[in-house]
Specification:
By secondary structure, the protein is mainly beta. Helix content is 0%, strand content 50%.
Length: 127
Amino acid sequence: QVQLVESGGGLAQAGGFLRLSCAASGLTFSRSAMGWFRQAPGKEREFVAAISWNTINTYYADSVKGRFTISRDNAKNTVYLQKNNLKPEDTALYYCAADLVLSPGYYSDSERTYDYWGPGTQVTVSS
């Protein structure tokens, strides 16, 4: 079975940093576009960042652009989200997702296109 497991969440102060990791198994990771989403209490799940499986194309939500960086290591079947200059509004449950696609440059900001999801890792940012 395909599994995605996030890690690296926790408590951080505003202005601080965290790096989230997502380890994948049971799928052809090198042919999967990967994305990060988040959901705060009482809010809808929202797109954060995505990366194509050739690593060339990345895309970020406006709210995190310039602060977060998505990357991947296909040899380790792992995708990362480096989060710098954290803000209290970054507090949410963060999910990684895999989108099985054929195009090496493909990426998506729509959760409807993703095939597999991890259980999430909590990030809490204090002021």
